[in-house]
Amino acid sequence: MAGSIHRSGGNSLAGRVALKVAGRVPHLGLLALINGIMDVQHTLQAVHQEDLIGEHLAGVRKGVVNILGLTIDADRWLEHAVQGGYADLSTTRQDAERLRAPVVLFHAEQDAWVDPASIESVGSAMGSNLRHSYVVPGALHRLQESPRKARTVYRQIAQCCQQELWPTRATERMLEPSHREIGVQNRAERERSKKRRPMGKSDHVAFWQEYLHNFQTIPNVADFWRLMDHVYRLMGDCHHGERILDAGCGNGNLGVFLQLNQAFRQRYARRGDFRSPDYVGIDFVPAALAQAMTNFEQVGTALRGQFYEGLRAYVPMSMRVCRADLESPLPFPDHSFDRVVCNLVIGYVRDPLFTLREYLRVLAPNGRLVVSNLKPYADLSAIYRSFVETAQSPDQVEEGRRLLDNSGRIKAREGEGIFHFHYQAELESLLRAAGVSHPRVYPTFGNQALIAVADKGLANLTVAA
Questions:
Q1: Rounded to whole angstroms, how far apart are CA atoms 385 and 23?
Q2: In this structure, what is the dihedral angle of CA atoms 197, 200, 205, 209, given to the nearest 10 degrees?
Q3: Rounded Cα gap, residues 11 and 33, in angstroms
């Protein structure tokens, strides 16, 4: 509308689109770009470890794959990027030169998606229209990972709006919503999103069956192996026949890790001092449970036939699986297990409080609970990118791409409100509500997840030493 003031903002790829549109919109009041991608070709290569733009121009076709966290028709998307003038740094500079509105840039100090040189180049093309360029110290590409940093950025945006759009009111005090108001609004938006995209139980099972089928190579990722070790260490000693429940075991990755570690412990333990734990894995995907048992049997055979040849007899762990839904009462009596582990699963259940209370119900007095969960807006691309960078064969590169596709499916459902991950304070509050006293929480999985541990006392749950 002629004479009116318009404001625009965008982040990541949306910021790149906003930059192009802003050069064509008259009377734009202010353009704020938050971690905007300035060189799409560079970002795609940084995240996916291949020059998708260059390969597309050379005639290589990808089909439907995950790009920057979204599963899309890659060939169509890349074609639009090239034809629309979004593909590289030179087109971004051209759009920046056409701008007539004031611009504010925010870029994360540790953004692996964006080349700092591209920000400097585009800022130079903006000339006097660039009002401010802020670096967010210590931040990654997804600002939401750090709510404190994100709030600082939003506060700064509001101040820039005051200065550029309402200079006569620049000294007025800004009103900010409280943490509680933000939490209430976030929950309301998640519920609205879930209602728009309902996911039935059969759809849920089908989703996880496909996901776990493409998740079988995750033990090859170093950060995931370190996560397994973190879980294992927090479980504490398990060499007196402890009963272990792996809740949401999937393909049995934790069970395999336990088999290997227990075999080493058994070899070096004093005779008579060692009894292997009993393992039970539960999941609601039959194909995953079948794969888990296959994995357990293969590892057991390898240990019997090679690791202990010529030494003391190898006593294998008891490895069992059971089909169970974590959103229903668990099919076990009270106090059935000495350890309950829930690894990267609690964010996927509809009622995590109910599920955690079930874990505590089946946990024996003085037993230990270990729970890990992704952080909100976790950037798993960095983990899988590191895996691809060290890949020794084309098959390993393809493994990394499949894992990245999987992470994109998770992020899409997080955005739809179907899955919900927790910041540290939220996870601690959830555990306390379930009955845990003073849960101890640590970062893990390449700092993209949290892991909590607690012991179950006779009266309540207290933190393990």
A1: 34
A2: -30
A3: 6
The two three-digit tokens of residue 333, written as one number: 């009596």
Predicted structure pTM score = 0.74
Give me the domains of the chain, ranges plus CATH numbers.
6-191 (3.40.50.1820), 214-378+421-462 (3.40.50.150)
Residues 284, 355: Cα–Cα separation, whole Å? 14
* Residue 215 tokens, joined: 């998740």
What is the percent of the chain with per-residue pLDDT over 70, rounded to a whole number?
A: 87
Tell me if 201 sits within 8 A of 47, measured CB to CB: no
Could you tell me if 402 and 285 are in contact, meaning their C-beta atoms sit under 8 angstroms apart? no
Strands (E), 12-121: 28-34, 64-67, 70-73, 103-108
* Burial status of residue 287 (CB atoms within 10 A of its CB: 0-12, 13-18, 19 or more): middle
Q: Coil, strand or helix: which one is 373?
A: strand
**Residue partners of 231: CB distance under 8 A and separation at least 6:** 254, 257, 341, 343, 370, 372, 451
Phi then psi for 379, rounded to 5 degrees? -100, 85
Q: DSSP states of 145-191 as a string?
A: GSHHHHHHHHHHHHHHHHHHH-GGGTTSPPP---HHHHHHHHHHHHH
Tokens of 174: 């800004």
CB distance 98 to 71 below 8 Å? no
162 in Cβ contact with 174 (< 8 Å): yes
Q: What is the pLDDT of residue 329?
A: 97
State how far the Cα of 21 lies from the Cα of 99, in Å rounded to an integer: 9
Side-chain-side CA neighbours of 290 within 13 Å: the count stands at: 5
User: Does 5 have pLDDT greater than 60?
Assistant: no
